[in-house]
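Moderator note: this is an archived Q&A kept for reference. The question asked for a predicted structure of one protein chain; the sequence and the answer are reproduced below.
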Amino acid sequence: MSRHRALAIAGAAVAVIAAVAAVLLATHRKPAAAAHAAGPSALVTRRDLADTQDFDATLAFADERPVVAALTRTVTAVPAAGRTVQPGTALYRLDGAPVILLDGSTPAWRPLEEGMTRGADVRELERNLIRLGLAPKGALVVDDRFTAATRAAVEALQRRFGLPATGTLALGDVVFLPGPRRVTGVAVHAGDAVAAGAAVLTTSSTARIAKLSVDTTQRSLLLPGHRVDVVLPDSRIVRGRVASVGSTAAPDQQQAGGSQTQTPAPSTVDATVSLVGRIDEPDGTPVTVRAAVDVRRGVLSVPVTALLATSGDRRSLEIVRPDGTTTVVPVRTGLYAGGYVEVSGPGIRAGVRVVVAPS
């Protein structure tokens, strides 16, 4: 074989080997950007974002108020604290006779009897008599007049409790309070003599509330009617609505050392939040009231971990293209809340995939 032919064959072999190596290298190599995009990613989505402010609060029962005796008598029975008393049953007993709980907001302030002047107390009485099934259907009309039909229903109520059926309720025979009542405190014991006007019990509604004090500078965050979340000790969240906010600020006073000099602290107002849902935690349990400071609805958002810091205060996102490569684009950011951030900019739309930092 000639020298020239041998060199030609050797050159061809080297070229083939180089070509095969190039093919193998191309087959196993991934674009640097694509390899980077293979990491964690997330989609741009539309969601509601809310910036929130937390307030310390405690659980309580709504509408706590005392119950006082209308006449001077001897206490013969009182319910235990924590018991719930339903309308149409005995709240407590004086001289052996029941003081009957009826549902209503107008207090009993006079005897209830046929021929009395009209009033809201009569209307409340008639409404209760019908609810308790003490009047035949259609026999008693709920108005503000004590009629013969009202008297007949009162007689049925008295017979239910084993009382003389006089058809008249003396002052102190019934107590009007809104809805079922939970006994929160007992001021007397069986055998105690009580005077008219003396406290016998303290009762509350069965509805749960959260009580808190709010700095006057944050008062606008908890306006009556505003919806809030209440975080329980087990991290469960129940819905709430601001029921009331005090109108008079109470300045907190702090004494400096042993001197009498007092330094006024920021003024606060008391607030209550009515709660929705079952709550088994006891009265006085610490909870957190979470109020929305700023709400953006249906905005484009990404996890905060997707943001890239660029020059100055600018932010960017690394977008994953359909072919697996990535490109960095500038974005404008809005509200940050709950681990997400509002974003906008060229090419930013729902469904776009972006790279996020590994967790």
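Archived answer notes: The chain has three domains: 32-51+294-355, 53-61+207-293, 65-204.
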